Amino acid sequence: MLLESGELCGMEAGQVSGQSLPSTPGISTTGHRHRATEASPQYEIKSDHITAGKTHCKRSEDDKMNPKSTLSIAGHPIHPMLIPFPVAAFVGTLVVDIVYARSGDPAWAAATNWMLGAGLVMAALAAVAGLIDFFGDSRIRDLRDAWFHMIGNVVLVLIEAVNLWRRLAEGGDFIVPVGLVLSLIATALLLFNGWKGWEMVYRHRVGVSEEPGNQTK
To answer: Among residues 75, 167, 200, 211, which one has the fewest Cβ atoms lying within 10 Å of its Cβ?
Structure first.
């Protein structure tokens, strides 16, 4: 019978190379691969798997935990803290575009430039935090929703960057209808990206504390 690394999982002795296995009559624990003595010919230990067994056990324990946010403060992920700022700015741009389309007041057109600029700055900060989380835990990269969320946000930022660039170049003439359409598309993307982001949290438990009951009150 073979004693594989999985059978050694959780054993205090014999998991690390150099330590001894629990004493069993007739079993040799030294060397690369030894047959048992004649007293117990039915056992064989693959000692080269002992250390690997500990690594396997540790990996199995990690897989049971929730995917972690790499960039956080006191256990609170930073990425979702930053997301409301670009969301408010981009949705606000759509609202102001509609107001401008109805009133024609150039002050509203100028306001959209500031809103788009602020939204892009905050979106860049949120993107940096999101990418650190994305590349910081391989379990997050294994999620299909995480890829949709990331790609969708990249497309969103590109759309709004073009939206601001053309407004600065052409002024209020760009807002109706092209700028307004771009703002509508951006808002729809925000809804999609938000949906995928909450799927990551509520369905896949990304960044969710393992022991919420032990939080400091």
So the answer is: 211
Which residues have a Cβ under 8 Å from the Cβ of 120 and sit 6 or more positions away?
86, 157, 160, 161, 164
pTM higher than 0.85: no
Amino acid type, 107: A
The 3 state secondary structure assigned to the chain is CEECHHHHCCCCCCCCCCCCCCCCCCCCCCCCCEECCCCCCCCEECHHHHHHHHHHHHHHHHHCCCCCCCCEECCEECHHHHCHHHHHHHHHHHHHHHHHHHHCCHHHHHHHHHHHHHHHHHHHHHHHHHHHHHHHCHHHHCCHHHHHHHHHHHHHHHHHHHHHHHHHHHHHHHHHHHHHHHHHHHHHHHHHHHHHHHHHHHHCCCCCCCCHHHCCC
Contact (CB, 8 A) for 155 and 108: no
Residues 6+ apart with CB under 8 A from 60: 9
Looking at mean pLDDT, say which of 18-27, 35-44, 137-146, 185-194 comes out highest. Answer: 185-194
